[in-house]
Amino acid sequence: MQKNTPPAELKPQPASLHQEQDVSLHSLNLKNKRILLIIGGGIAAYKCLNLIRRLRECGALVRPVMTKAAQEFITPLSVSAIANDKVFTELFNRDDEHDIGHIRLSREADLIVVAPATADLMAKMAQGHANDLASTVLLATNKPVLIAPAMNPQMWSHPATQRNIKTLHSDGIHFIGPNAGEMAESGEAGYGRMAEPMEIVGSIGNLLVPDNTPKPLAGKRAIVTSGPTHEPIDPVRYIANRSSGKQGHAIAHALAQAGAEVILVSGPVDIPAPQNCEVIHIQTAREMQKAVETALPADIAVMVAAVADWRSVDEADEKMKKDNGKGPSSLKLTENPDILKGLGHHKKRPALLVGFAAETENLEKHAKAKLKSKNADWIIANDVSPEGGVMGGDKNTVKRLSNSGIEDWPEMDKSGVAQKLVDEIIKHFIIETVDI
Ligand code: CTP
Predict the structure, then answer these.
(1) What digits encode the pLDDT tens for the residues 58-80?
(2) CATH number belonging to domain 25-208
């Protein structure tokens, strides 16, 4: 059992939230990491100036490539000035090819970052096009690629883009964002805003220096429940919900990565315990409730477990027999404690309480009712009807419900959902500041 002891210098500074964010950013060491930044043609391109500045503050060397469209939004001159390097724009430029060449450009980086990754650039990547410098570099590289998509929400949700996202995921491309919010087009809102520079830097840190990532949740204590509970009927039989524990364990892992002290209360699962978490193994709902309450106080609680709602009134000491010919005996059930609801009304209620809602029909209606009755801050609602393959599978498509409304999150694998949730938790505790 390993516990997380975050370095003191990474602990949040109480003076101001802005300061807190800077502390975690400045502790990220990207010294001499070579980042090839491909700037795509979208309004969010202007944020790349801040991104480059932030990366350089962390010690990274940023070499920019700009698409033709990107140059409609910001100029190579300003990018070059901030990056302190030449900006590459042309595939067929005799000087550039002589100096370095597109193959070397793609190989002489530790990481390629595409920001903003437009729908067009993502389509080119998914299809393997190589008809300009950016797409050629992306096809020729043997290095990890991180993309920060940005586009109109309709373009993001279009089946063609969604198909490309799936392809890119399966090609091993890393994603950061997009975030939900107001678009540049007036009156348009939804998924499509490029992740903020600070979020992109955090994600770059995760990829390049996994052991030295910013710890924005240092000093925060989190309880996570995961997996099913088993409610014994007799020594060989039990009542349980289907749950692999993958989603809960991924959330515990992502919280620990972000520096939180994590207590993971887990039912019986067949997956390894995440590193840097204190794991408490339980079997029944009542044991889970006791472990959760003993772990209080906490700043954050994320209740992911698929708790069995009922248990047998009389657990038999011996194996129950078939009683040949008499047919099955009826099973008397009683309700288990609702752990999330108990926390929601607890005098030591965690500051941020997150529940999940697994539904097979009327997702939003049932999830809304759970948000209210359990007094949670957020409910992450997922459709677990058998055709979705969520139970036991690796993918999850969820919505976040809160008192401010409902957000659809794109389909992601379970670690993607975990990372997104933890990013939202970080945002909840740290107010974002965006400046160039
Ligand atoms: N939960 C809990 N304790 C229970 C039942 C559920 O802590 N006894 C938590 C789950 O971990 C989840 C949320 O409550 O975060 C919703 O769980 P879900 O199974 O979707 O709903 P239930 O409350 O059990 O309601 P129902 O089965 O009627 O949908």
Answers:
(1) 999 999 999 999 999 999 999 99
(2) 3.40.50.1950
Identical fold for domains 25-208 and 221-316+329-435, yes or no, is: yes
Domain ranges of the chain: 25-208, 221-316+329-435
For residue 99, the model assigns a pLDDT of: 54
Half-sphere exposure of 338 (CA within 13 A, CB side): 14
Confidence bin at 319 (pLDDT 50/70/90)? confident
Q: CA 299, CA 216: separation in Å to the nearest integer? A: 14
Look at ligand 1, atom 9, and give the residue with the nearest C-alpha: 340
Residues enclosing ligand 1, CB less than 6 A? 225, 285, 303-307, 309, 336, 338-340, 355-358, 370
Between the CA of 338 and the centroid of ligand 1 the distance, in Å, is 7
**CA dist., res. 120 & res. 156, Å (int):** 11
* CA dihedral sign of residues 274, 275, 278, 282: positive
217-272 pLDDT tens trace: 999 999 999 999 999 999 999 999 989 999 999 999 999 989 999 999 999 988 77
Least confident of 3-7, 79-83, 118-122, 300-304: 3-7
Given the CA of residue 340, which atom of ligand 1 is nearest to it? 7
Ligand 1 centroid to residue 406 C-alpha, Å? 19
For this structure, is 32 an active site residue? Answer: no
Q: Which atom of ligand 1 is nearest to the CA of 339?
A: 7
305, 265 Cβ separation under 8 angstroms: yes
239 near 278, Cβ under 8 Å? no
Distance 307 CA to ligand 1 centre (A): 6
Q: Bridge-partner residues for 380, per DSSP?
A: 356, 400
Rounded Cα distance, 66 and 279, in Å: 47
Say how many residues make up the chain: 436
| CB distance 330 to 277 below 8 Å | no
Other CB atoms closer than 10 Å to residue 235's CB: what's the count? Answer: 12
| Probe target for ligand 1 pocket from 225, 309, 383, 385, with the most ligand atoms within 8 Å of CB | 309
Q: What phi and psi, each to the nearest 5 degrees, are found at residue 120?
A: -65, -45
The preferred substitution site among 289, 307, 384 for testing ligand 1, maximizing ligand atoms within 8 Å of CB, is: 307
What is 221-316+329-435's CATH number? 3.40.50.10300
